[in-house]
Amino acid sequence: MDKEMKRKAILNDALLPLLIKTSIPTIIGMLVMVIYNLTDTFFVGILNNKSMTAAIGIVFSFMSFIQALGFWFGYGSGNIMSKKIGEQNDKEAKDMASIGIFFAISTGLIIAFLSQIFIIPLSKFLGGNASNDLFEFTIEYLRIIILSIPLGLYSLTIYNQLRLCGNVKEGMTGLLFGMITNMILDPVMMFTLKLGFIGAGYATLTGQIVGSFILTYFSFKSGNISLHLNFNKERIYHILAGGMPNFSRQSVTSIALILLNMTAAKYGDSILAALTVSSRISAIAYMIMIGWSQGFQPICAMNYGAKKYNRVKDAFKLTTTIGSIFLIFSAILLCIFSYKLVKTMTSNIEVISISVQILRMQCITMPFVGFFAVSSMLLQNIGKYLMASILSVSRQGIFFIPLLYILSVLFSQYGIYLLQPIADVLSFALAVFMVRSIQKSFVKT
Known about the structure:
Order of helices and strands: HHHHHHHHHHHHHHHHHHH
Distance between the termini: 27 Å
Family: Belongs to the multi antimicrobial extrusion (MATE) (TC 2.A.66.1) family. MepA subfamily.
Pfam families: MatE (PF01554)
Keywords: Antibiotic resistance, Cell membrane, Membrane, Transmembrane, Transmembrane helix, Transport
Strand content: under 5%
GO biological process, one term: response to antibiotic
Structural class: mainly alpha
InterPro entries: MATE_fam, MATE_MepA-like, MATE_MepA_subfamily, MdtK-like
């Protein structure tokens, strides 16, 4: 009954209140995620060792790839689950949930096993060998984080299934419990238990365990999980193809981060630490925008499945307009307070100077990111998987990676500062072109 009420609300309620209702839990979740990412950097920064700060960023590039897999299985299964609920086919939705979870757990176990065996070459590949200290800290931190990989994949898969099926509050609650546990345990394990730098890794692992238990409880409570697996080619296709845009975007982002670290490493640990700090701060606005955009996704998927195409178009326009206005104000504030914000993350003068320059450059094009993000979600949720995949990888892949080498050759270290702003403008232009090209496919209802 509760599921049917949510379906009717998403198909019929006024859009602005509905968007606010569906996005508030995800915005809160994204805020906590930002604080969560800042927490590790903040407490490690207290240790006043730029190599440790840089190691956090190095390992994050690897975990970004793991998150890509979680979003792949979670979005792929959750997106088709949402459509099936829109069609009132709850049994098919449950079967899709179980297959997505199976993919997540089995893949996580394989990756964790292989990563532990090849941890030294993996650390080198990630760019962690820029200095002896950085290499040592990268291996030390990575060894603990690897243990959390199966749990991380499992949690992200269930979270996205819950969210895309309208159980936004439950999904965010489970994710938040894990992240809050991590944040509380960071100072406890690092300073109270005197584990130092490695304590941040143990805090992350514990947070993943707690989050997994809470998300499992909510998934069973909402009736999303079936305890038997029922594979067929069509179901596997929908999960893998439906989640491909998210996997493409996240995995390309991870690859871009690795290549960025490798390219920036020749300029020393300071720029690696600065990239870590500036990215954490710029993520404040970007992640809130993503949270707002994610409120649009269940509205888009269910209404498209119910053939209410005009409602999809109206929701898209409303989401992009409000999101872009928010990013304009955010960019202004982050630019004005960039020095003070960076100084909370590190006391190293050189790292502060580089971080401020990078952050202010990113603020110039930040308002363009909103339309790009919502456009990618629109294309994915209406089944334009190939277009969504291309757009998803454009910002950090198609444009970012070639520009990384072109700009670093032309402008040396300063080219790295210009990198993200130029990629943002080009990906925005591509999003405008793609959205206009599919508007004719929306027939009047």
